[in-house]
Amino acid sequence: MVADSHYIPKDNRNKPRGEDAHFFCRKAQVIGVADGVGGWAKRGIDAGEYARQLMTNAAASVENSSPADVDPKSVLVHAHRKTAAPGSSTACIISLAGNRLRAANVGDSGFAVIRGGKTVYRSPVQQHSFNTPYQIGIAGRDRPEAAAEVAVGLESGDVVVAATDGLFDNVFPEEVETTVELCMTKYGVAPAPAARELAVAARRKSLERDTGSPFEAAARDAGFKGRGGKRDDITVVVAYVIRDGILDSLSNFALSWVKKKIFSWIYLEPLYYYAYAKSFYELNFI
Ligand SMILES: [Mn+2]
Predict the structure, then answer these.
(1) Cys staple from 134: which of 97, 126, 152, 200, with CB 3.0 to 4.6 Å?
(2) What's the pLDDT at 279?
(3) Measured in angstroms, how far is the CA atom of residue 113 from the centroid of ligand 1?
(4) Which part of the chain is the PPM-type phosphatase domain (predicted)?
(5) Residue 282 has pLDDT above 60, yes or no
């Protein structure tokens, strides 16, 4: 995979770094996103610090792993155990190995898999009630062991968009799909501009009051009023799934060349000699 990210924290002078945190690790092929729960601010606690420590600990635990050895839920359990900051957070750990994506997810951060311009998978959202996602923390009611575990088959060319609710609550899936498609046309397989354009689109929508948003629709379903987008920190990580490594493609090329040669020796060349001999033979008898 090739991955990159873009983060736009909500404008808040007291918390310039916002409450989201994320990482991605190319070698281990792991992505993590977390969203510190804002409710802690009432108690004078910046839950962004919890989210940042959680993601730092998760990243540290995988940095020397190979993709096949990563178990997303174990990463989450381990990171939670090591994180001592006060606060709580949603969290999603995604691991790519071979053609398989595995993820462990608590709350309403998550990811979508886009194939050929269409969303083929969207991770499930866990929430206790409207706008109260499952969250892990120092004393929360949710445990990392309760994370939803999912596995998705991937194909070369798939795009994984991992994000906090700042994206998913503001931008409809169709807009994510068209933005990703446009970026692929404009920039090729370059995850940085795609992550940036998705985050900027979410930021724009989050400030609008006149256009609908997924958040507005969910609020209405839950019996709340409110129009437009949701002001929030916005984290977007985009990963393009490509077959990794020149060596891999070279060995595949070599293998197909050998197979073709063997095929030709076994089947084509005797046929050729047979045809040649036959034509010669027949020629003699005309
Ligand atoms: Mn959020």
Answers:
(1) 126
(2) 45
(3) 20
(4) 5-241
(5) no
Separation between Cα atoms, residue 186 and residue 16, nearest integer Å: 32
Rounded to the nearest angstrom, the distance between the alpha carbon of 20 and the centre of ligand 1 is 7
> What's the gap in Å between 133 CA and the centre of ligand 1?
10
CA of 260 to the centre of ligand 1 (A): 54
Using the mean position of ligand 1's atoms as its centre, give its distance from the Cα of residue 168 in Å. Answer: 9
| Residues in contact with 71: Cβ distance below 8 Å, sequence separation at least 6, in sequence order | 95, 102
Say what the pTM is: 0.84
- Where b means 16+ CB within 10 Å and e means fewer, 44-69 reads ebbbbbbbbbbbbbbbebbeebebee
- Which one, of 5, 57, 8, lies nearest residue 232 by Cα? 8
What is the Cα–Cα distance from 211 to 228, expressed in whole angstroms?
Answer: 5
* d(CA 156, ligand 1 centre) in Å: 30
Residue 159 CA, ligand 1 centroid: distance in Å: 22
Report the separation in Å between the CA atom of 264 and the middle of ligand 1, taken as the mean of its atom positions: 60
Of 112, 235, 116, 111, the residue nearest 184 (C-alpha): 116
